[in-house]
Amino acid sequence: MTDQNACPNLEWNKYRHIYNIRRFSACLLLFIVFLPYLGIAQNEPEYDEISVFFNVQRFGGTDITALIKNETVYLPITDVFTFLKIKNNVTSNLDSVSGFFINQQAVYLIDQPHNRIVFQGKTFDLKQGELIRTETNLYLKSNYFGQVFGLDCAFSFRSLAVTLNTKLELPMIREMRLEQMRSNISRLKGETKADTTILQSHPAFALGMADWSVIATQQQKGESDARINLNLGSMIAGGEASASLNYNNSWLSA
After folding, report:
1. Of 124, 148, 201, 215, which residue is most buried, by most CB within 10 angstroms?
2. According to the CATH classification, is domain 48-175 in 3.30.457.10?
């Protein structure tokens, strides 16, 4: 009885082992087939990189590259500060930006490894993902430009534009106002500034204009008359020169 019962069990274990091998092979095959798609899904970035127009009201703007994540805009710190003429230094691995804001006493540090902003002795802790480092720049969530530095940035998704509003006298705004004041003073004085200045060349020799005329008169019973006039303009040794030649046959007969 024991031998007879053992045979069916051995057969069942054999088939179960073969079934497990086939199931494992099928799962492995499916994993290999879908592995590239899983890799693509894992490598997809959590944000979109687009170009937006960064505009300072009443003073103009420029195009910068921004990140859009969950309908929130992240702005490149160095690009924004450079446009506003705010001192900024970025580390070689693009994980920190430091400098001073408007005056040398207002130093700041935007630190991505520690997720914080240190400005004028105050520390602003950031949440994970509010500072994004890419291969080319370090991006900060736009609302912190207003909360920390007083640079309120309003993003319009329809027009892909960021409008900066601030009450601060930024270096860029101060320079543009001074330039406008100089322009107004020059206009009041009657001074004009040419858009393009073409410098005069002074070659060693250049032939300019040539004006000539020939007048000949002949009478049936009288003397004939011939007059020749030649005017030349040129440039010799960097200076202007002109010559005039006149001929009249009546002078010779006299």
Report:
1. 148
2. yes
